[in-house]
Structure formats: C-alpha cells, structure tokens
Design a protein that fits this description.
Elements lengths: L9 E6 L1 H4 L6 H12 L4 E7 L3 H12 L4 E5 L10 H8 L4 E3 L1 H13 L6 H4 L3 E3 L3 E3 L8 E7 L2 E6 L3 H19 L5 E10 L3 H7 L1 H4 L5 E6 L3 E10 L2 H19 L3 E4 L4 H12 L3 E5 L5 H7 L8 E6 L3 H6 L5 H7 L4 H15 L3 E7 L14 E8 L2 E8 L6 H32 L1
Parallel strand pairs: 1-2, 1-3, 3-8, 13-14, 13-15
Antiparallel strand pairs: 4-5, 6-7, 7-8, 9-11, 9-12, 10-11, 15-16, 16-17
Helix pairs in contact: 3-4, 11-16
Length: about 425
C-alpha cells in the first residue's frame, strides 16, 4: 500500500444506481467540487458506481492506492441496497460494530417524528472498528471519518443533498482545515459568450487558454460558449486578482460577445438592463411555443419588467390578436421578416410595453420546404427607436429543441445589443 507521499489529491465517489441510470442529476459532485476548490484542495477524479457491493469494494481499494482522501456520498440508508459502509469495511477486512451512541441518536430522531425505528434502521448504527462518527444533524444516517491505512482517509455522507451539506460544513470543513492538505485557495469565474462558436473563440484567445495560473477552459452549450477562469493563490484576494486580470483581457479581445458572468443568463442580463432603465418588455412567439417567455419569467424579479406575452401558433391568432395584416401572411407566409416585425409591433401595442420581441420559424422536424427549410427562423425587436428583424438559418441537424432554444437566445441577444448601443449613444449625447 502506498504511503501519503506517493498519493495525491482528493477523489469523489458517488454511489447509487439511480445516478448511473440518469434518474437523478448528480448535483452532489458539483457542489463538493466547488467546496474542495474553495478549500484549496487538489481534486483529481470523480467516479459514479451503482449499488453493487463487489464493484464498490474494488473501487475503494483502487482509490486507496492513489488518493489521500476519498469522499463518498450515497448508500448510507437503511435499505438492502445501501451498501457503502459495509463495502468500505470489507475493502480493508475490518469488522463492523454497533455504536451505542449512534443507535441512541437514531432512536431519538425517530421518536421525535412519531415513529419507531425498525431492525433495518439499526443497520445505520454499524461502523467499521476504529472509524470516527460523522454526525448527521438533520437525518438518521451517520457518516464516518476513517483512516484505514496510513495516508488514506475516507469520509462518507448520505446522498440526500441537505443532509450531506449540513454534515460537510459541520464536520468535514474543520477536519480539512486541520489536516494540512490544503494547497492554497482556488477560485473560479464563468464567462458567457453569444454570437461566436467554440472553435472560433478558442482561436481568438489561444494563448490565454495555454496559461497555467489562471487556467482557462472552454465549454459549449446551446448557442452559447463559456470560458471558466480558475486561479490558485495562498490568499483568496490574490486568486481573485488573477481572475480579474484574465477576465479583463478576455473581454478586451471579445468585446460585446461576452454577455454575462457565473449564473447570469441572456434573459437575466436583458431584464437587468431594462429594469435599470425603467422600461418594460413583452413577447410574441410562434415556433418557440412559450420558451422565450419561460426563460424570462424564470428570472427572479422579472415581473417588474415583463408585462406578458402571446403564443401565436395559428395564423388566426397572429391576425386577430397581434393585428398582423392578413395580406402579409398571404404574401410572405408566417415565417418571414415582415410577419416577425408585425408580431413584435403588435404585442408592443397590445401590452403597452417599451420593448417587444417576436419569434417565428420552422422548428421541425416537419414543415420545411425548399424555400423555407427546417431551421429557418425570423426574430424581431421593437422598441422606442423602431423595429428590426433578423433571419436565422439554424439547419435541421441538431433537432427541434435546439432550434427553439437558440432562437430564444438569438432574439434576447439582439435586444441586449440594441440596449447597449442605445446606452452608448445616450452617453455620447450627454457628453456632447
């Protein structure tokens, strides 16, 4: 068995067949990754394993050869498929013993909820001989902190996120602070870009991507590209300074392509700008089917800006509710620039909003023609300074939902750029 000097870093092992099947999102791993970074702990691997005793034993033994610390979530409950504690003990040929204090705590919590714990629940009081209890302040399943061999420590947590987080902050964080494993403080910031492809952006900032500290890594999404900046230093302020400097350089090179930071979205950025200006917004949608409105109203506080919207799938609704002239529909068809313009102007008049957005297109999978193929979309932006439209040719290879998502993003970005341009013009006029 390797000693500590031959091992490195922290690994995360998430246990649960439901994770492998995709029944639930593995949010625990993401949260733990951020926590490890904030503690300055080198984190090298994440693994997911199903509820299988033999595989779990083999993985724990393997990880004990290379890691200093192993964090395990899941498999601590009372059911037969909760095998984590048993498997860890078996991995090191150490017997389990019932902890009287743990069993007493389980009983007290059960009685306080009007229940009597059964024999299956008592399994949770079993821990390997020599392991320290990692108490669970909110649930019945305790974890443990155990060093079964020199230089290797395993910490276990329930899969329930609220219980895991409470236990982590109460016990794990103090233990890590005292362990001497921290190598500094890691911080990161996520920049969001729209209107540029991942490869093009990577070429534009290629030398920055080659940096060691901070590191910059690209990620692609539905229409947007992200750059994550990660820096390490002995103090948080120094690490953030490195991030700030790198962000400034990236923004200098990319201009208005960068629209947000961390949890910001196109919708939240647009709503913030409109809110600061005291202006309102409405939407008229066809092929996005309410997706644009949903993206906007998902932002907390959207009601101060967003007045409402119309899902005008049928031409009759475009005509009768949005006042799109019948002759436009007949001459140009519903998927056209004139109709997109009329939809935006119509919903603006209908709601009395300062700004209005429209989307009309062919999301597929059917309905396309040689002249108007699947992926053809027109978006409109109407405001105090007039109405503009844009044609999008998104193709049919990425599917209906991708077309809908990107269409909503494109029209939001069009409005963002309009608002930015107006702000610049207003500033110039003020200076003049």
């Amino acid at each position: 068995m390797a000693d500590r000097s031959e091992r490195a870093g922290v690994e995360i092992l998430c246990v649960g067949t439901e994770l492998l099947l995709g029944n639930i999102l593995n949010g625990n791993a993401r949260w733990l990754s951020e926590e490890l970074a904030s503690l300055g702990l080198p984190h090298f691997r994440q693994t997911v394993v199903g509820d299988n005793r033999d595989r779990l034993i083999a993985l724990v033994q393997e990880m004990a050869q290379r890691a200093s610390v192993l964090i395990i979530t899941g498999g601590l409950g009372p059911t037969p498929d909760d095998l984590t504690t048993e498997a860890i003990a078996a991995a090191f040929s150490v017997p389990l013993e019932e902890r009287a204090d743990v069993w007493s705590d389980i009983q007290e919590k059960a009685h306080s909820r009007g229940r009597t714990p059964g024999p299956e629940t008592r399994r949770q009081a079993l821990l390997p001989v020599g392991a320290a209890v990692l108490s669970n302040p909110t649930g019945t399943a305790p974890g443990m902190i155990w060093t079964p061999v020199p230089g290797f420590t395993v910490l276990t947590f329930p899969g329930v996120p609220s219980e895991m987080k409470a236990m982590w902050k109460a016990t794990a964080v103090p233990w890590f602070h005292a362990s001497g494993l921290s190598k500094g403080v890691f911080v990161s910031r996520l920049l969001h870009f729209w209107g540029i492809g991942e490869s093009t952006l990577a070429e534009q900032v290629a030398d920055v991507l080659e940096g060691v500290n901070p590191t910059v890594a690209p990620y692609a999404g539905s229409g947007e590209v992200k750059l994550r900046i990660t820096a390490c230093a002995d103090e948080s302020s120094k690490a953030w300074l490195l991030v700030d400097q790198t962000e400034q350089e990236l923004r200098r090179r990319t201009g208005n392509l960068c629209f947000g930071v961390d949890q910001e979205s196109l919708a939240s950025v647009v709503l913030k700008r409109l809110g600061q200006a005291g202006q309102t917004l409405s939407v008229a949608e066809s092929c996005t089917g309410g997706g644009l409105g949903a993206a906007l109203t998902a932002v907390p506080g959207a009601s101060s800006v967003m007045l409402g919207g119309v899902i005008s799938y049928a031409n009759a609704v475009k005509r009768d509710l949005l006042s799109v002239p019948a002759e436009l529909l007949e001459r140009h068809g519903a998927v056209s620039a004139p109709v997109a313009e009329a939809m935006a102007l119509g919903v603006r008049r209908l709601t009395g909003s300062d700004w209005a957005l429209s989307v009309t297109g062919i999301a597929g999978p059917d309905g396309g023609t040689p002249d108007k193929p699947v992926g053809l979309v027109f978006v409109g932006v109407a405001g105090p300074d007039g109405c503009s439209t844009e044609m999008l040719r998104l193709g049919n290879t990425r599917g209906r939902e991708w077309i809908r998502t990107v269409s909503a993003g494109e029209v939001l970005n069009c409005l963002r750029l309009r608002l930015m341009a107006n702000s610049v013009e207003a500033g110039q006029e003020k200076q003049a």
